[in-house]
Amino acid sequence: MPRPTGRVLTLLELLQSGGTRTVAELADRLDVDGRTVRRYVDHLIDLDVPVESVRGRYGGYRLAPGYRLPPLMFSDEEALAVLLGLVAGHRAGLTAAERTASETASAKIRRVLPRHVAARLDALLDSLAFTDRPGGSTAPDGGVLLTIADGVRHHRPVSIRYTDGQGRRSERTLHAYGIVAHGDRWYVTGRDAGSGEDRTFRLDRIADARTLPGSFEAPVGPAPAERVVSGFVTAAYRHEVTLRFHATVEEIRAHLPASVASLEEEHEPTRQEGRTAERWIRVELRAERLDWLPPVLAAIGRPFVIERPDELRDLVVALADRLASYARQS
Q: Is pLDDT above 60 for 276?
């Protein structure tokens, strides 16, 4: 049986993950009664840990705003790894914090680096180049991210306040399966307890998250990343496009990744000398606009058939005519 000191440290860890924790939830997680939870909270307060009591329906305990982590010690290699992670994460749009927080965190670490390590880091950053543009998306709230991650790990329902793309606000109870970084955004996928449907939500659109009492069973099936990607492919858009290519999967995927299109092999593969297996492959995707597709089809460079929509066929013909007229100019 865990000793009281171990349970007090576990309580601190739970509170540090963010959000308000009810007494019932903490008692269940610590395997004690509510009275013991309150005694453990008093222990933390005696250690100058600022634990606040929250009243109301979803009341409980939380750490006071502004509580700082205790000092950390890094080796030279660890400090370099953290700084490079901050730089790369910011460029990729995957930092779960405001830009100011990333910059101040980097500055604090740099101030305590030995001169020779700082010089090595400066040399690396000066010689480092990125081929992509810096991420421009809105970073998710750190507290929201940690609370949902805790819900994923321990199969706890999470209450969220969400604003959709049309600005409509709602409160939902989410059974979160996993958190996914895709492109330059963060997503959480799970079951919306109200509708009973599997949904994907952008984390930067979640204004508040708190864990709720109870638990749920994680489903058997696709991994969270697969659920997010398949959700993009099947989302409702203005145009539904169906194509057939005589090509390899690799040739198609080089221009139409899994997050854009779904593929279905129609015939058994045939081997050609010096080439990977080619076959007729059915391609389905959805799009708000079609004008970007003709150049993509041309770039794939393999025979294709447009089954729908007719508008796409007209756009491809128009592009071919323009290219032919440019080629005839002298």
A: no
